[in-house]
Write a structure and sequence with these properties.
The protein has 244 residues and is an alpha+beta fold. Helix content is 42%, strand content 23%. It is built from 8 helices and 10 strands. The longest helix has 16 residues, at 24-39. It is globular and about 50 Å long. The two termini are 16 Å apart. The model has no long low-confidence stretch (mean pLDDT 90).
């Protein structure tokens, strides 16, 4: 990766997410509610709910709060009815953005997203305007020095992963089809390997490298979007110079 470190970008992203805990529970609980509404309240038969519960627990959401969220999703407790909506657009330097939201008011949400974009040098696009620039994948990333590529590759490929790449900084990235995510994750767990990142995500097919003032402006845009309660996840083609 010329010009930037994937690992530095991952650490930068995680650090900023950890610093913004104020609305984390809101997002985690909404995902549990939506997952339960769409696939039922039994995590054994609802893969999306299993993942939502794992994230909620890792975010230290209380057990009672999680259980109530499941009951709200299945309609056994009264609660707000959330729907999922996706927006696409562009940020600084033409970096592509996919913005996934859960909302009980589409009018409010699109206004908030549009405002955040326009205030920080971005703009809202039409449906499908950037989604073709991303691939839906399962992704696992191991920190440099935690394990070796041969070990990861043997486990990953046998479990159904598509690719294993060691970056110049020593981080090991494993990608798979979303449907194979759980099998690969389980294989790593059984071997005692704990990736720093384990998620189903949208990965940019071509990255937009930003430096200097453009990187600073893009980070402010991402922060503004992620601070919105209705925004669940932001995917971008932007990567930042490791000096930033």
């Amino acid at each position: 990766m010329a010009g930037h470190s994937k690992w530095a970008n991952i650490q930068h992203r995680k650090g900023r997410q950890d610093a913004k805990r104020s609305n984390l529970w809101t997002k985690l609980i909404r995902e549990v509610i939506v997952a339960a509404r769409l696939g039922g309240g039994d995590p054994d038969t609802n893969a999306r709910l299993r993942m939502a519960l794992t994230k909620a627990r890792s975010g230290n959401v209380p057990k009672d709060t999680i259980n109530n969220a499941i009951l709200k999703g299945t309609g056994q407790l009264p609660g707000v009815s959330y729907e999922e909506v996706r927006y696409e657009g562009y940020g600084v330097g033409g970096a592509a953005l996919i913005i996934d939201c859960t909302t009980d008011n589409r009018v409010r949400t699109v206004a908030d997203v549009r405002h955040a974009l326009s205030k920080h040098g971005g703009n809202l696009g039409t449906e499908g305007s950037v989604s073709f620039m991303f691939k839906h994948i399962g992704e696992f990333i191991f920190a440099p020095g935690v394990t070796d590529e041969d070990t990861v590759m043997e486990i990953a490929l046998e479990a159904g992963a598509d690719d294993v790449i060691t970056d110049e900084d020593g981080a090991i990235e494993v990608t798979c089809e979303p449907g194979n995510f759980e099998a690969v994750q389980k294989a790593f767990e059984e071997k005692g390997l704990n990736p720093e990142v384990a998620e189903i995500t949208y990965k940019a097919l071509n990255e937009t490298e930003l430096t200097g003032n453009d990187a600073t402006k893009m980070q402010k845009l991402l922060d503004a979007l992620e601070d919105l309660d209705d925004v669940q996840q932001v995917y971008t083609s932007a990567v930042f110079d490791e000096e930033e």
